[in-house]
């Protein structure tokens, strides 16, 4: 492609705009349906202690690292890592590949939530929400890997979701992403606050909260509980797959990095706790109505959102309003996260090809959207989605984060230089704790998570799926993301970085991007 004239890199209009976008990326579907279940299964209120430790020793340090890399090199993950060290560029493309995979199926869940906003008005799922979801709505095939029919009821809202996301992205960072999140985040807080207040007034709500927050202090001696805490932090903060590097690349040179990371990290965790209160207050009501314990109605993921909650909505007064608020919250949270995921791919394409924003958005959106619709709007779509989500989370995001931390801290030894860069403009200065967290604690925890996951994986197939199905829909996705990252690194850059993309020192920081590298 022809080279493009140097173009100044876009910037956030305000620091608040960046923070809202970062919070919007972090607060997604997993906050609402994953955190409550993980907390309940790992010691209840006692789980909040390892969760807080994980936030302080891994989540926020990783956020600061990604913010610093993004702002310093003012580029997408591949271009930023290329400036750190040319071989490290593969890490950036690996993250882009992960974002591509996640975007294809994340949009599908968002499309389901859109449909369920409408279903809530008339409680269309009837007396059996489970049969309605799998048989009537998704028209799920009998066996994993079977694809025999196209499901228009999923395809139509999915296409609509992609149109909205690409329209916002095409408007740019300042007029599109920033303005959208200024609407989405307050709207999400309003929706969910009303939902929580309503849930707390239901019969049995206190029993649900008691089940969630009653501490089992003995669980703190269980290593798997601490691993679960770190896993929740990694998966909920949008770290490890390039989003925060990309968003931070649009920051101004004098932006406060550590302060922004603290605000985004604690805001995300606060919403997770709020989500836990709303979800378990509702499950307490469901248990009271059924005359059973909360443990018999608790769950997570799709079953919680699209089976358990519709059942609750059918049984509670003014359930239609509760349904609108709940599924509306899923839509808003999902949109802000999906926008950030696709932006990583758009930014990488812009940096590599020199294409303008609109053309890059259309190219990325066209390819990603077509794959999303063709693969996940079929009667076998749910099986593909489940396997891809499991393997890309377990062996994509977490492993990519481990590779980044080891490369930056151990191989390139860049933490001191990056710390000086962050400290130069941040109100809260980083100390030795930051380098210890990233150089020792985070790699050890991530490494243990990988070993633990692999041991469990080889002991028993995920969800009992056939080995042949997992090989081409799960392992192939995880391995393919890694391979694609390596192959894209071998393609030489055909153009210089756009104006503003090259690293420029800030006062008090190392004078050149290469300073601090080993010979």
From TrEMBL:
Keyword Mitochondrion in annotation: no
Region annotated Disordered, chain positions: 500-519
Pfam families, alphabetized: SNF (PF00209)
Membrane spanning stretches: 12-33, 45-69, 90-114, 149-171, 183-205, 225-250, 262-288, 320-349, 361-385, 391-412, 432-451, 471-491
Keyword line: Membrane, Transmembrane, Transmembrane helix, Transport
Localization annotation: Membrane
Protein name: Neurotransmitter:Na+ symporter, NSS family
Keyword Transport attributed: yes
Any Gene Ontology CC annotation: membrane
Topology within the bilayer: Multi-pass membrane protein
Source organism of the structure: Streptomyces aidingensis
């Amino acid at each position: 492609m022809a080279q493009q004239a140097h173009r100044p890199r876009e910037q956030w209009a305000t620091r608040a705009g960046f923070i809202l976008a970062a919070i919007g990326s972090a607060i997604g579907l997993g906050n609402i349906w994953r955190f409550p279940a993980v907390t309940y299964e790992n010691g209840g209120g006692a789980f909040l202690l390892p969760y807080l430790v994980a936030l302080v020793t891994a989540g926020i340090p990783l956020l600061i690292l990604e913010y610093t890399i993004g702002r310093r090199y003012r580029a997408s993950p591949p271009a930023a890592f290329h400036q750190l060290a040319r071989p490290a560029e593969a890490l950036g493309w690996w993250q882009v590949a992960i974002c591509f995979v996640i975007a294809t199926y994340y949009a599908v869940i968002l499309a389901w939530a859109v449909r369920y906003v409408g279903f809530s008005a008339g409680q269309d799922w009837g007396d059996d929400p489970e049969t309605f979801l799998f048989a009537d709505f998704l028209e799920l095939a009998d066996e994993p890997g079977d694809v025999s029919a196209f499901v228009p009821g999923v395809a139509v809202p999915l296409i609509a979701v992609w149109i909205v996301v690409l329209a916002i992205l095409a408007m740019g960072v300042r007029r599109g992403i920033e303005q959208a999140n200024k609407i989405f985040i307050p709207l999400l807080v309003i929706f969910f606050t009303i939902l929580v207040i309503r849930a707390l007034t239901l019969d049995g709500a206190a029993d649900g909260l008691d089940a969630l927050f009653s501490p089992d202090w003995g669980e703190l001696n269980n290593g798997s509980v601490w691993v679960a805490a770190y896993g929740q932090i990694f998966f909920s903060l949008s770290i490890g797959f390039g989003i925060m590097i990309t968003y931070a690349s649009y920051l101004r040179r004098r932006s406060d990095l550590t302060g922004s990371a603290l605000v985004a990290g604690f805001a995300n965790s606060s919403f997770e706790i709020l989500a836990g209160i709303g979800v378990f207050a509702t499950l307490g009501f469901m248990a009271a109505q059924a005359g059973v314990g909360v443990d018999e109605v608790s769950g997570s993921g799709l079953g919680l959102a699209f089976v358990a909650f519709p059942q609750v909505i059918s049984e509670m007064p003014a359930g239609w309003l509760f349904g609108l608020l709940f599924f509306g919250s899923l839509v808003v949270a999902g949109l802000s996260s999906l926008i950030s995921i696709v932006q990583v791919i758009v930014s990488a394409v812009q940096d590599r090809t020199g294409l303008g924003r609109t053309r890059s958005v259309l190219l990325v959106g066209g390819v990603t959207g077509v794959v999303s619709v063709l693969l996940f709007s079929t009667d076998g779509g749910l099986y593909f989605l489940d396997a891809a989500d499991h393997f890309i989370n377990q062996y994509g995001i977490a492993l990519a984060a481990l590779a980044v931390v080891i490369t930056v801290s151990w191989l390139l030894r860049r933490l001191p230089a990056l710390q000086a860069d962050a400290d130069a403009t941040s109100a809260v200065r980083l100390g030795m704790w930051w380098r210890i967290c990233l150089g020792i604690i985070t790699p050890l925890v991530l490494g243990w998570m990988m070993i633990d996951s692999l041991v469990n994986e080889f002991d028993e197939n995920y969800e009992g799926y056939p080995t042949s199905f997992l090989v081409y829909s799960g392992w192939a996705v995880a391995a393919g993301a890694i391979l694609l990252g390596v192959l894209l690194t071998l393609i030489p850059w055909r153009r210089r970085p756009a104006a503003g993309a090259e690293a420029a020192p800030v006062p008090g920081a190392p004078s050149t991007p290469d300073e601090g590298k080993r010979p």
